[in-house]
Design goal:
Layout: E1 5-8, E2 19-21, E3 27-31, H1 38-48, E4 63-65, E5 72-77, H2 79-87, E6 91-94, H3 106-119, H4 123-150, H5 169-177, H6 189-200, H7 213-230, H8 243-249, H9 252-258, H10 279-289, H11 292-322, H12 329-355, H13 369-388, H14 390-435, H15 437-453, H16 459-471, E7 477-483, E8 489-495, H17 508-524, E9 536-542, H18 550-564, E10 582-589, H19 592-598, E11 609-616, E12 622-627, H20 635-647, H21 653-674, H22 696-709, H23 722-726, H24 731-745, H25 747-755
Helix pairs in contact: 2-17, 3-15, 4-5, 4-14, 5-14, 6-14, 7-11, 11-12, 12-13, 16-17, 17-18, 20-21, 21-24, 22-24, 24-25
Length: 756
């Protein structure tokens, strides 16, 4: 199989579009500077080698096509590998599968023999365990039942309402369990006592609706009509000769009341007892004063007053009767007092008005009475609703008692349920054990057979690593293999002279090197030496020479060449690895010298290879671009990089100097590379054919062409006459002319180098 395509997207510096590698070869080189996205790529590959349930969410949008974990294993060397296998611990787990078997698997075989013995447990032994579990849980059950039942004692005062299950603790326990979801609704015992008093200590009779809201509306309307009449000024006939006298008396009612006595006064004034000379005329004057309009208004006030009295009297009687009901007594008493006070005050006002009709009067504002009125009506409604809903109230009261018991018993019940669940689970396991003894024995037997076919050898790996350490000058250190009680091997770095652990004294480069040697042994190993279906290895190496000196870097390069060398010199053999266990290799680096060394074509390395450039866009988005051949990423690449940076800077004399020199060197190098050297004079520069002779671009282009044809390139541009021409133009013209030249000799190359 092997990896054929991959996509890195929506992670780190890779955007939603992502970067794609297609048509991936057996040997793949990826060059990119630090921060370009190489480490993200290596981590993504490692993540996709893990089981689905162990993968990280951040790589969920990335895809790897071709990798089959059933027949392939992926080994990834990067910073994470160093951290997990060396830096984070002072020993390394020896999980090498080399040529010899030295791992002791007797402990595991003994373990599975124990399983077989356990599977032979008789039914009687299982029954003994079940019996003990039943005894234990029954004891816990009795204790829980008793503790919960005892909490009913707090309701003894509620003797008029007996709770169910007073004679069955189990039913009581299970019934309370049903109320556990409602514990948030619980009332306190004090609140329940109050409700109990309401239910059983009060008269449960309906209160008659002796008053209504319409009564207050009618009262208010009558009250307002009377108040309007009281505010009017009432006077008799103004043109009567005695009107001035009556007005002066300011008591027309008194005068009016004396008129009937004139017939009985024998010609004397009933008011002053003096003789009336013209009694008929005097009577006429009084009647004229107390005309029809006057008498009607006075009669109207008296009538409204009497009507109001009748209404209030009826209301007061009704309210007085309502005071007999304890549940509304307070509200009824308050309204009775207020209404009485208002009526008494109103009577006085009416009397004063009748005594002095020519004066304005007003009654006390009755709107404030609506509060007391509404309060009484609401109290009546609540009391009657309570009576009507008595059955539901009793039911609610009983439920609240159970809810309180549930809240107080919650911990006991949940603890018992937890223990019961555990016991049920154990008993289920016991029953399953009894039913599946044969299957468990077969499984253990298969595992024993498999273990006996496995061999693991670490001694050869230790020997190889120590030899390599000695070769590169690590004479003061060595790796020691230590067997633990489980048979797994671990490595320790020791100092020869003291024999102590030397982990803390290692430099970063030394640690990385040791970690790589460990990784190298993993690459050479075989998963199962006794199996014909050994997994092929896909190897990912990400910047293995970090912090290493030149000597160690050369050693690492040599080891990698051993991994990637071809099988033989035949054409098919050159596309295969000498190590048949290696399926595919990815090498990622930022180091130019390491890149050139490891990809050197003169070495016998696998020719089924591909080259990629990992870079970032101006918006810091990572890209992976396949290259036609080995990247030109030495001084030439750096010249392009410098030129791109200069293009975005403001035009200065210094920029012209530097940029023109870089352009000359780039054109010269590129033309040598593509075979145009010493042939530039014969090139048809079609890209500038349409330029006018006097344009700046035409002049600059031809200046560069002259420089190319000048064979004395050892003389710098600053010493020639060419620069004097170039320096007279700004950087915009310079860069435009440079692009025009590449339109002829390599437009695609220009686009790649300037836009990568």
């Amino acid at each position: 199989m092997a990896i054929t395509n991959l996509i890195v997207k929506d992670v780190a510096s890779y955007d939603a579009t992502g970067a794609t590698m297609t048509d991936i070869k057996k040997l793949n080189y990826l060059f990119g500077y630090n921060g370009s996205g190489k480490s993200t790529l290596s981590r993504m590959l490692y993540d996709h080698s893990l089981p689905q349930n162990e993968r990280m969410a951040e790589y969920q949008h990335c895809t790897v096509t071709g990798f089959n974990d059933a027949v392939e294993t992926m080994l990834v060397f990067n910073e994470d590998f160093v951290k997990n296998n060396f830096i984070a611990q002072d020993s390394q787990k020896g999980i090498f599968s080399l040529n010899k078997a030295n791992k002791d698997i007797d402990d595991k075989i003994e373990y599975y023999n124990g399983i077989i013995s356990e599977a032979k447990i008789s039914d009687s032994q299982c029954n003994v365990r079940e019996t003990k579990l039943d005894q234990w849980i029954n004891k816990k059950k009795k204790s829980a039942y008793d503790a919960v039942f005892a909490k009913r004692d707090q309701f003894k005062l509620f003797y008029k309402e007996k709770l169910q299950y007073s004679g069955n603790k189990e039913q009581n326990f299970n019934h309370i369990r049903n109320f556990l979801p409602r514990v948030a609704e619980k009332m306190t015992i004090e609140e329940l006592a109050t409700e109990y008093e309401k239910l059983y200590a009060r008269e449960l009779i309906l209160i008659p609706e002796l008053i209504s809201r319409d009564d207050f509306v009618n009262l208010s309307e009558l009250y307002n009509r009377l108040n309007s009449s009281l505010s009017q000024i009432i006077v008799g006939g103004a043109d009567v000769d005695i009107s001035a006298m009556i007005s002066e008396l300011n008591n027309s009612v008194w005068v009016e009341q004396g008129i009937p006595y004139l017939d009985k006064s024998s010609g004397r004034c009933p008011f002053c007892q003096q003789e009336i000379v013209e009694i008929d005329k005097f009577v006429q004057s009084l009647n004229a004063f107390f005309n029809k309009s006057y008498t009607e208004k006075i009669a109207g006030i008296r009538g409204l007053g009497n009507e109001l009295y009748t209404v209030i009297k009826r209301l007061l009687e009704s309210i007085k009767n309502l005071q007999n009901y304890a549940s509304i007594k307070n509200e009824a008493s308050t309204l009775y007092g207020r209404l009485s006070d208002i009526w008494l005050a109103g009577k006085d006002v009416i009397s004063e008005k009748l005594q002095a009709p020519n004066q304005k009067y007003s009654l006390e504002d009755i709107t404030s009475l609506s509060v007391e009125f509404e309060s009484l009506l609401t109290a009546i409604e609540d009391a009657n609703n309570y009576v009507r809903n008595y059955s539901q109230m009793k039911t609610k009261f009983v439920e609240q008692c159970w809810i309180l018991l549930a809240a107080e018993s919650k911990d006991i019940i949940e603890d018992f349920d937890k223990k019961s669940k555990k016991i049920k689970k154990i008993k289920g396991s016991i029953r399953l054990l009894k039913e599946n003894n044969a299957e468990r024995m077969a499984y253990a037997s298969r595992q024993i057979s498999l273990l006996r076919t496995q061999t693991i050898n670490t001694s050869q790996a230790v020997e190889n690593i120590n030899a390599l350490l000695k070769r590169v000058g690590f004479n003061d250190f060595y790796i020691s293999e230590i067997k633990n009680e489980n048979g797994d091997s671990r490595y320790k770095i020791k100092r020869k002279r003291q024999g102590k652990d030397a982990f803390t004294s290692f430099s970063e480069g030394e640690r990385n090197f040791i970690a790589f040697l460990y990784f190298y042994q993993l690459c050479l190993g075989i998963d199962d030496v006794n199996s014909g279906t050994a997994k092929k290895k896909i190897i990912v190496i990400d910047d293995p020479i970090s912090s290493m000196d030149s000597q160690i870097m050369f050693t690492v390069s040599t080891l990698i060449h051993q991994l990637i060398k071809y099988k033989d010199s035949t054409r098919p053999g050159k596309k295969q690895y000498a190590n048949d266990n290696i399926e595919q290799v990815f090498i990622l680096t930022h180091n130019l010298y390491f890149y050139k060394e490891i990809s050197l074509k003169q070495r016998p390395i696998c020719t089924d290879n591909a080259f990629y450039l990992v870079s970032k866009t101006p918006l810091s988005v990572s890209l992976i671009e396949k290259q036609q051949d080995r990247l030109i990423c030495d001084d030439y690449y750096m010249m392009w990089k410098s030129l791109k940076r200069l293009k975005n800077e403001a035009s200065t004399n210094e920029l012209i100097i530097v940029a023109s020199n870089l352009m000359r060197r780039i054109i010269d190098t590129y033309m040598k590379f593509i075979g145009y050297a010493n042939k530039s004079g014969n090139i048809t520069w079609h890209s500038i054919d349409n330029l006018q002779d006097n344009t700046p671009e035409y002049i600059v282009c031809h200046t560069f062409i002259s420089m190319i044809n000048d064979e004395s390139h050892e003389v710098g541009v600053f010493d020639s006459n060419h620069y004097s021409v170039l320096s007279s133009y700004n950087s915009t013209v310079l860069f435009k002319s440079f692009e025009l030249l590449f339109d002829t000799i390599g437009k695609d190359h220009y686009d790649m180098m300037m836009n990568s």
